[in-house]
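hey
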């Protein structure tokens, strides 16, 4: 069946619903180049304002899945579990969570992305390990998971071609933050990646795409429903991204924090947060463990051993961890001091992510160079008490750190007389 793209744009502009055949035609012809970017941009904006029904979103997701290759992980024994975060600042969760889950014998075959703008990317962090290779063929990827139970690689060029094209277009046309397009983007990649079960970390707050819990809940429920509609056991966790995760924002220093956490160090709150996510992933694979049992794998080295095994399998140098865990080495560093005594009540994640990017730890465009040593090291977290003149954070860069950038960073910090107690996991959505 043949359609005219201009008629379909007009149809959505007027608020009508697409059929499955119409959606299949749009995606198929966009991938082949018959539908040009300017028409797809118009359609994305029409969807932004008019939305999509649950059925349309499901049809769009599967059309995107079918636009490229799908990975077949059936030859890997056991229930394969995947995890995806909708983005954040200081998010090194995958680096800790994947080997922790794998240490209980559950295979994790994961494809991750790079950072862009204020959000960090797992691949960029892993590449701060000398020699680490994030590019593997499907065959090598599967063989590594068979051998070690764990692999984290970059997304295959052949996987979900429509999403790769559409996401790049949405990024430059202000159509990123619309629930049907976010849900179909995330779930098409997770479905095509081949895992049996999926944990979705839906972030909410200052540093996330979703600014309200209500919006995050709608997105989470939409993705859970999409996963279950195609036979993937899916659980979504709504988590707080009003402040950065952990103390490190950057690349090499986030590897440092991940390695230290895998050695049983770190705050009780952060360790428990990781353990709670691990408990859900393990449960999806049919493995029931207590939080105490999961934490013991951080304390006694089983999770760290799996991390080292993955690094070696992907040509990384685990002997370089002594270097990786040393303080950041940059030409410039500036300590940020508290202007007053009190409690840290806000650390605005979005603003901190932008500052980290400007220091050299992130990129504005996908081709920008990353400085693995640049970044931010926090000394205090929300809820911590501080004295006037005490160090709150340190900025690191190989470029001159301007007074304007220091002021920009200071504007992300709020100190008041009232202590607050943030909660990492806000809600869990299972069905």
């Amino acid at each position: 069946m043949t359609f005219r793209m201009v008629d379909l744009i007009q149809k959505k502009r007027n608020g009508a619903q697409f059929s499955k055949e119409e959606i299949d035609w749009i995606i198929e012809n966009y991938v082949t180049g018959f539908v040009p970017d300017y028409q797809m941009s118009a359609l994305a904006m029409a969807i932004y304002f008019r939305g999509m029904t649950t059925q349309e979103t499901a049809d769009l997701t599967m059309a995107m899945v079918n636009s490229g290759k799908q990975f077949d992980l059936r030859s890997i024994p056991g229930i394969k579990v995947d995890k995806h975060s909708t983005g954040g600042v200081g998010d090194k969760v995958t680096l800790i969570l994947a080997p922790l889950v794998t240490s209980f014998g559950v295979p994790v075959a994961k494809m991750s992305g790079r950072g862009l703008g204020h959000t960090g990317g797992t691949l960029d962090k892993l590449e701060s390990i000398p020699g680490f290779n994030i590019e593997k063929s499907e065959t090598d990827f599967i063989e590594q998971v068979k051998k070690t139970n764990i692999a984290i690689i970059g997304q295959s060029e052949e996987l979900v071609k429509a999403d790769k094209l559409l996401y790049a277009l949405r990024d430059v046309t202000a159509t990123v933050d619309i629930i049907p397009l976010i849900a179909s983007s995330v779930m098409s990649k997770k479905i095509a990646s081949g895992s049996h079960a999926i944990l979705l970390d839906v972030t909410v707050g200052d540093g996330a795409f979703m600014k309200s819990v209500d919006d995050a809940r709608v997105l989470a429920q939409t993705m859970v429903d999409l996963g279950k509609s195609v036979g993937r056991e899916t659980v979504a966790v709504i988590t707080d991204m009003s402040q950065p995760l952990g103390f490190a924002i950057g690349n090499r220093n986030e590897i440092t924090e991940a390695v230290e956490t895998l050695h049983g160090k770190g705050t009780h709150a952060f360790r428990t947060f990781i353990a709670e996510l691990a408990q859900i992933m393990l449960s999806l694979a049919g493995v029931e463990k207590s939080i105490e049992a999961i934490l013991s794998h951080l304390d006694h080295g089983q999770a760290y051993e799996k991390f080292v095994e993955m690094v070696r399998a992907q040509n990384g140098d685990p002997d370089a961890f002594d270097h990786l865990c040393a303080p950041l080495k940059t030409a410039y560093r500036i300590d940020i001091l508290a202007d007053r005594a009190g409690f840290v009540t806000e650390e605005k994640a979005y603003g901190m992510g932008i500052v980290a990017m400007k220091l050299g730890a992130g990129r504005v465009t996908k081709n920008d160079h990353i400085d693995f040593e640049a970044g931010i090291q926090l000394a205090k977290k929300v809820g911590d008490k501080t004295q006037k003149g005490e160090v709150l954070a340190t900025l690191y860069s190989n470029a001159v750190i301007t007074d304007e950038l220091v002021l920009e960073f200071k504007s992300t910090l709020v100190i008041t007389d009232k202590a607050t107690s943030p909660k990492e996991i806000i809600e869990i959505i299972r069905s």
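The chain has 17 helices and 13 strands. The chain has a mean pLDDT of 92.
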